[in-house]
From TrEMBL, chain A:
The lineage of its organism: Bacteria, Pseudomonadati, Thermodesulfobacteriota, Desulfobacteria, Desulfobacterales. Belongs to the HdrA family. The keyword DNA-binding does not apply. Residues 177-204 form a coiled coil. This is 4Fe-4S binding domain protein. Residues 35-64 form the 4Fe-4S ferredoxin-type domain. Keywords: 4Fe-4S, Coiled coil, FAD, Flavoprotein, Iron, Iron-sulfur, Metal-binding, Oxidoreductase. Gene3D superfamilies: 3.30.70.20, FAD/NAD(P)-binding domain. Its cofactor is FAD. The keyword Transferase does not apply. GO terms for molecular function: 4 iron, 4 sulfur cluster binding; metal ion binding; oxidoreductase activity. InterPro entries: 4Fe4S_Fe-S-bd, 4Fe4S_Fe_S_CS, FAD/NAD-bd_sf, HdrA-like. PROSITE patterns: 4FE4S_FER_1 (PS00198), 4FE4S_FER_2 (PS51379). It comes from uncultured Desulfobacterium sp.
Automatic annotation (TrEMBL), chain B:
Pfam families: FAD_oxidored (PF12831). Signal peptide: none annotated. This is Heterodisulfide reductase. The keyword Cell division does not apply. It comes from uncultured Desulfobacterium sp. It comes from the Bacteria. Keywords: Iron, Iron-sulfur, Metal-binding, Oxidoreductase. PANTHER family: COB--COM HETERODISULFIDE REDUCTASE IRON-SULFUR SUBUNIT A, FERREDOXIN:COB-COM HETERODISULFIDE REDUCTASE SUBUNIT A.
Amino acid sequence: MLDVGRHPNIELLAYSEVEKVEGEAGDFRITVRRKARYVDEDKCTGCGACKEKCPTIVPDAFNRGLGQRKAIYSWFAQGIPSTHTIDPQYCRQLNGKKCGVCKKGCKADAINFDQKERIIELEVASIIVATGYDIFDPALIHEYQYGKIANVVTAIEFERLLSASGPTGGHLDRPSDRAIEAEIEELEKKAAKSQKVIGKFEEQHGESSAEFYTRYEKGEFKGDEEREKWAERYKEHLAIVEPLEALKKRAEGFSAAKRLAFIQCVGSRDARFYPFCSGYCCMHSIKEAIIAHEHGSETTSTIFGMDIRAVGKGFEEYKVRGGNNSNIRYARGRVAEIIEGPDNNPIVVYEDTRERKVKEEEFDLVILATACAPNSGVKQLAEILDIEIDRFGFYKTSANQPLDTSRPGIFVCGCAHGPMDIPESVAQASSAAARAVQIVTASEKLRKAS
Amino acid sequence: MSRDILVIGGGIAGIQSSLDLAEMGFKVHLVERLPSIGGKMAQLDKTFPTNDCAI
């Protein structure tokens, strides 16, 4: 990624979208819309002083909403370019409120609330489409209760939980536990506030609120307005502190997730959604289970699937090694449903096809190996590029020219073409680069001849 | 006529295409919808099979 940022032959147009494509192979004219970041790309050093000052906290999309970021942000810590961006949906200043704190905090004077989007024109000989994929929304499979049971997450959310630069700093904290910890924090703030209020009464009357309250309950201080107010405030304080103590007690028992279940083919090989095999999910789940085991040697993983498709160089060995060294159990069977048990533990209901029995098993965390779905922007871009898409929504190609789209001079690679893993995406990308060059040389030859 | 090439999408595939073309001496315009390149791969903690860091 770094190389892209500093290669003299690459013009990086991030936070931009292709608007219009005219012309033909060898001679395309492209219109690109550069969206307004409200930060000057030439001035921003990426130091992050602005986001430290920003008062607006929003869910972090890069961390799939598991963490938080500010209204001015970098997409992720090591992102290229490191230019920060203001989110116009949340920024106070851009929504007519008085703020501008980031501008004051920026030593490079890079913040520009008046920045407008820019339209630029390019002339190119050929185009490579590498727009990737989207993660299948598992909430569509109601029986898995994604979004309803906190401890059912997607494979990519699990990646963020595993990551040292992720929202948990690489600890396998369960989402339900993190929600309770956030609630405790919130209640502690409230408790400190109400403690201040009743503290004033205590000081004034030289008595603890608890002692006063027992006397008050007995019927003393009737008609004493001041003390009635005190009693009222004390009751409010108890209404905060009592649930807080209960939550704190619960939180004492929290530990990292140790019993993991991976569910394969969530949206793939499913006639209701995508009939195809997404290809990479089996190895992805095995890899995640191995990494989780590296995080804590007592971690056990069960991978539920119709079959484990370890097709590729070294894949089968990796699978076997995971089973032998990383406490992975492969359970053959499709999961029928996930329900929530005690302590927010998900319970997986599945058929063990080897024993021909329906079983239930409790886990700490369930990870869904979601399908590779076509990118949501495919239709719009296909119209702009005037190329065809297939019945699922990937760009259409033919078997003997797998990188050529329906329009000459436009090529596709990676998951925009169909589900594939990283090595295959890289190989396709290099092939697409070669095809793109062929257009340049062919049109040059043609020009020389004429 | 231009010898430039447009790459749409800055994930692992778009990055690889761009670097290959740039190394071959072609001028590349890499368009990415999001504020930074990296795509889905940047969200991965480690990558198979070497368990190396994705970024």
